[in-house]
Amino acid sequence: MWRGLWQQRGMPNTVRAWTLRKAREADAPKLAELKIATWKTVYKGVAPDEVLKALDAKAEAEKFRKHIAAERENVLVAESRDGLIGYAVTAFSGAEGATGELVSLYVLPASIGAGVGQQLFDMALTDLAELGAGEAFLWVLEANARARAFYEHHGFKDDGGRKECEELRKPAMRYRRRVE
Ligand SMILES: CC(C)(COP(=O)(O)OP(=O)(O)OC[C@H]1O[C@@H](n2cnc3c(N)ncnc32)[C@H](O)[C@@H]1OP(=O)(O)O)[C@@H](O)C(=O)NCCC(=O)NCCS
Predict the structure, then answer these.
(1) Domain that holds residue 45
(2) Ligand 1 atom 25, closest CA
(3) How many domains does the chain contain in total?
(4) Pseudo-torsion of CA 117, 120, 123, 129, nearest 10°?
(5) Domain of 65: which CATH number?
(6) Is 9 part of any domain?
(7) Which atom of ligand 1 approaches the CA of 119 most closely?
(8) Atom of ligand 1 nearest to the CA of 86
């Protein structure tokens, strides 16, 4: 189990310590709550309001259950004493060469900037390497400047891939980097 310590000062409402682990089936409802809370903050004013309003806890929990149960996918969570504060989803089908996908990476807004994202990211790339991936790609909204800067800081580069994100109905771009 990975342990993280809160590293920044002056952030009164955030967590001070957390652990990282693989999600269990029983985490699905809490993961759904976390996803909805983070999306409503991160994508406010970015994705259409109706998309955010329509997010449904039961449907989201079911999606997490599928990811957790899938053989070559993993859901990784960061958990503080108060509950889940971040998650990452990885997937490696093996179908398109040795390329894995970082499907999601989200940290609860109150815990952003404390190192949780970094640890989830490191664990996700290690996980993809263990699943057999030599390379990882991800999709990020063109409008999500903070996440793009985070990924670029960690060696991901725009590979020219473009599509409309189905869930958020906004243009997304593909980033890629090697994993070891
Ligand atoms: C992207 C996200 C997961 C990063 O997590 P975080 O908790 O803010 O990041 P951390 O505090 O762990 O950052 C650790 C490292 O990343 C760097 N970093 C963090 N945010 C950064 C940014 N926007 N630009 C450049 N570097 C960044 C930090 O400087 C630090 O690097 P260093 O140790 O070399 O100084 C988080 O901001 C988040 O959840 N954002 C909203 C959700 C989202 O947009 N997810 C991506 C969807 S595709």
Answers:
(1) 19-178
(2) 150
(3) 1
(4) -80
(5) 3.40.630.30
(6) no
(7) 12
(8) 39
